[in-house]
Amino acid sequence: MDENKLIGILPMITSALAAKISESENISADAAISKLYKSKLYNMLENENTKVWQFSVTKLFELYQEEMATGAIDFPEY
């Protein structure tokens, strides 16, 4: 996927992921977005070359939770 397409889908992924974070942690949408933007996961998500954007929102949420709990992300191998 080229950068222009990623720019088009990233807001949708981010919105859905932030909603899951907000619900799970019982925090506002703004706080959830802020936490997501500060994460290593988001840094990797916005880099097209990592291909992290290909994961489902559910899987991305699991990876986010892992990062928050351990400080590291163990990406699945496909």
Characterization of the model:
The protein is an all-alpha fold. The protein has one domain. It has helices at residues 3-25, 29-37, 40-45, 57-70. It is globular.
Q: Please outline the major beta sheet.
A: none
| Number of discrete domains | 1
As residue ranges, the low-confidence spans are none
What oligomeric assembly is this protein in? single chain
Strand content: under 5%
Task: Enumerate how many helices there are, as a single number.
Answer: 4
What's the SSE pattern? HHHH
Terminus-to-terminus distance: 18 Å
The total count of strands amounts to 0
What gross morphology would you assign? globular
| Helical fraction | 55-70%
- Whole-number average pLDDT? 91
Radius of gyration from the alpha-carbon trace, in angstroms: 12 Å
Category by helix and strand content? mainly alpha
Summarize the structure.
This protein is an all-alpha fold.
Question: What are the defining features of this structure?
Answer:
single chain; 78 residues; mainly alpha; globular
Which SSEs are present, and which pair or pack?
Elements: H1 3-25, H2 29-37, H3 40-45, H4 57-70
